Amino acid sequence: MLNTLSGRFLILTVIFVMLAEVFIFVPSVARFREDYLLTALERAQIASLAVEATDMISPDLERELLKNAGVFNVVLQRDDMRQLALSSPIPTPIAATYDMRDPGDIRLIRDALATLWDSEPRIIRVLGSPVQGAGMLIEITMMQMPLRTAMLEYGLNVLYLSAIISAITALLLFLAVQAFLVRPIKGVIRHMQNYADAPEDARRIIEPSAGVRELRDAEDALQMLQTQLTSALRQKDRLAQLGGAVAKVSHDLRNILTSAQLFTDRIEGSDDPLVKRMAPKLVNSITRAVHLCESTLAFGRADEPAPRLTRVNLARIVAEVVESERLAAGDYPLSFAEDIPATMVLRADDEQIFRVLSNLVRNARQAIMATGDPGEICLRGEEDDTTWRIVISDTGPGLPSKARDHLFQPFQGGVRKGGAGLGLVISGDLIRGHGGRLTLQDTDATGTIFVITLPKADFALAPAAA
Predict the structure, then answer these.
(1) DSSP character for 349?
(2) Which of 53, 122, 339, 450 has the most CB atoms around it within 10 Å of its CB?
(3) For the domain bounded by 307-466, which CATH number is listed?
(4) pTM, rounded to two decimals
């Protein structure tokens, strides 16, 4: 019970109601004591009227009047004279005097608490103003114990009433919490458990229906989370299926390219000067395609193979990439600039660096050609004591916002219509395999700049800031 939300609300309600009753109890007991003493003064004044009506009263009648009034003595003051209207022996000395003529609230509460705390049979004197203007002062002496007994009975009645009010309030709050909080929360839990059984089933996504705003916000957030998770699971499933299909295609394509590689050996023996110049490039392209198919098959089994680090001349690789893209551009007014120091040698995987640069330059070429305007692609190499940097810049139209938001996410960061957006994902993975990073430095309507940073030492660079 204590571990449930409604049970804790129930207990807290009882506690808070009882605390509220305590704050009400003390002033009400003080007011009850004031009324009790004022009533005793009125009874004593009425008893004194019998004395004024006759000159002499018998001792028995005087004792009867004092007993009915509940006092020992009654003193009246008119003008400047004090008159002992009724009297009887006082068993003990007077212990305290209370003036009921316009007392303050704090004083009433203090005297009431003192009366409740004092359990001794004491005699008290009470001063007050006579009713109906029948004098200036009335004074009585009386036992304090009957007053204390009456106050205790009144306090117990208040306590019983408070307990009943607390129980009713707690029950109503318990039912309200069950209806407005606990039941909707249990409904959300049932939805979560149902969704967990089959998260790929979109029919199990929660439909927000809570009337309480906070619970409705929680349901909205849960719906968004479940929708994103279901979408991610579907995409993961499609990627797994696509990976299987790509692996099969790569397997067959590798066999075809291997056969084509054998044919190129014959072509290399041709006497045609153009064939002699183009044949090595064709052989290199087919060799790279075979390696790519083998890497794809390896990726389907585990991950991109680790780079085989060797001493690589960057200028040679850039020249091969640029020449391939020049052929692809044909007669389009697109220029290529190579600013690579001839002595700049990287410690990297030759094939993987070629793939990265080829992906980036190809993306830039396709973006520029899609605009129909002339353009330029520039590759620049830099180095310092700790890193090598390769800067690829173009004068294209820049990346659209969707591509920037999902730059390195497969099937989401594509720029061309129909593109899969895998080029940058693969390039980023390959560069990270070298311990480096691929970052988008800038992109706007005047062009795009990508930067490849590779470490010279055997350590990985920190990831680029988002």
Answers:
(1) -
(2) 450
(3) 3.30.565.10
(4) 0.43
